[in-house]
Amino acid sequence: MANFQLDARRLLCPMPVIRTQDRVAELRTGDELTITCTDPGAAQDIPAWCRLNGHTVLSIEHDGDELMITVQVGTES
Predict the structure, then answer these.
(1) What is the pTM of this model?
(2) Phi-psi category of 10—alpha, beta or left, where left has phi over 0 and alpha has psi -120 to 50?
(3) Which residue of 58, 59, 72, 76 is surrounded by the most CB atoms within 10 Å?
């Protein structure tokens, strides 16, 4: 298992989800990806995408205007 970062700041819907999808496709099952976003809609969009695609949201943290979502890659990547 490895940990990765994705900077999706200043991107608006649907780009944070698209960038997440593209990055997850390059990772292995069990890897973790932390996505940093400024689009408040990502707090619902990325978890919904994870549920549909077999990935797990490990945490959602807020730091001012930034949102950090950590995802564990499932077997559907």
Answers:
(1) 0.94
(2) left
(3) 72
Torsional sign, CA 35, 18, 73, 3: negative
Residue 13 annotated in active site = yes
Identified catalytic residue from 4, 11, 13, 47 = 13
Domain ranges within the chain, ordered by starting residue: 3-7+15-67
71 and 56 Cβ atoms separated by less than 8 Å: yes
**3-7+15-67 domain in CATH 3.30.360.10?**
no
Each residue's pLDDT, cut to its tens digit, for the chain (77 residues) gives: 899 999 999 999 999 999 999 999 999 999 999 999 999 999 999 999 999 999 999 999 999 999 999 999 998 54
Which residues have C-beta within 8 Å of that of residue 72, sequence separation ≥ 6? 30, 31, 32, 55, 56, 58
